[in-house]
């Protein structure tokens, strides 16, 4: 097939998305004691990784690989249940790629680049022309086809997805120093004084952890890096800086490919890597006009669809009325004589009479006992709140019993509840 004919087709058809989903996400504290960060529940019925995967699917990419490592069981189970619809006879593939010591019997994934290098034989067996490397732990909607088009049109060796952020807020990111054409002239990791954008001196371009390569060039660079003693085997630390110096690296601005429904005012991207950020991004969804529209059917959020009964609200007595305002309630929930406000209930949650839940994120299978009050909390899956327990109203007492974030959000797990009875 000629290159001219190819160019009239979506480039995504010749691309493979490779999602890096092995990270622990230690800043989420107890939420990642049992699961990797990409497997953490989000938005009432999804997992964090579903955003990157949905973006790839909606962009037209039909070959996807997911590299897993840290405590991957719940992530792998979710992927097997929710993402098993790809068919090889349609030239589709979905590979779950745990660290399997393919290179050496004692070598796990040593870095983000190594997580791709160790599976090069699998990637090359599919022969994709382009590779879209993705982080599996961010919340956003993006059309990767537009980034692929820029990559091809610019003749770049690597195209780096970038956020425009206030310059002094970029100190925790890898920051791109670019020229007037968005060619990257320097890559600086977590700089104390980030370089500004030409024409926008108060803004900086921060890396999103999204990269586009031609597959053959990527394979060559990964093999070169693997042979270097002292490399960290990392895209941001090794591969991209090398290509900035020795090739052509181009920045792709998120605003150029962000997918927004009519109601969405901003180019929404969130790193939900802390308890406060995770809580806020979920609670944002309860707004009348949320900054992220998960109801946008033109760019659907795909996930595992658990079979549940409809949510149920019972009792209609003064002081004992099953009600919810500004809240998202998933299937299988029973709100029995209790009140909910500005909260998210994942599937199969039970709230009993005279209890209240406000500004809280309640993960699947939780139970709120009779007369309990839960305010500004994140409840891990399966937590059973005893009757009459009050959480979120006494910061000093909460800090003695639970995990309290800098922003005053209580993270509650079942072991914390169990210790209360000792």
TrEMBL record:
Involved in the biosynthesis of ADP-glucose, a building block required for the elongation reactions to produce glycogen. Catalyzes the reaction between ATP and alpha-D-glucose 1-phosphate (G1P) to produce pyrophosphate and ADP-Glc. GO terms for molecular function: ATP binding; glucose-1-phosphate adenylyltransferase activity. It catalyses: alpha-D-glucose 1-phosphate + ATP + H(+) = ADP-alpha-D-glucose + diphosphate. The keyword Ion transport does not apply. The gene is glgC. Belongs to the bacterial/plant glucose-1-phosphate adenylyltransferase family. Pfam families: Hexapep_GlmU, NTP_transferase. Its EC number is 2.7.7.27. Keywords: ATP-binding, Carbohydrate metabolism, Glycogen biosynthesis, Glycogen metabolism, Nucleotide-binding, Nucleotidyltransferase, Transferase. Residues 18-286 form the Nucleotidyl transferase domain. One of its GO terms (biological process) is glycogen biosynthetic process. The keyword Chaperone does not apply. It comes from the Bacteria. Residues 310-412 form the Glucose-1-phosphate adenylyltransferase/Bifunctional protein GlmU-like C-terminal hexapeptide domain. Alpha-D-glucose 1-phosphate binds at residues 109, 174, 189-190, 207. Pathway: Glycan biosynthesis; glycogen biosynthesis. HAMAP family: GlgC. SUPFAM superfamilies: Nucleotide-diphospho-sugar transferases, Trimeric LpxA-like enzymes. This is Glucose-1-phosphate adenylyltransferase. InterPro entries: ADP-Glc_PPase (IPR011831), ADP_Glu_pyroP_CS (IPR005836), GlgC_bac (IPR023049), GlmU/GlgC-like_hexapep (IPR056818), NTP_transferase_dom (IPR005835), Nucleotide-diphossugar_trans (IPR029044), Trimer_LpxA-like_sf (IPR011004). Signal peptide: none annotated.
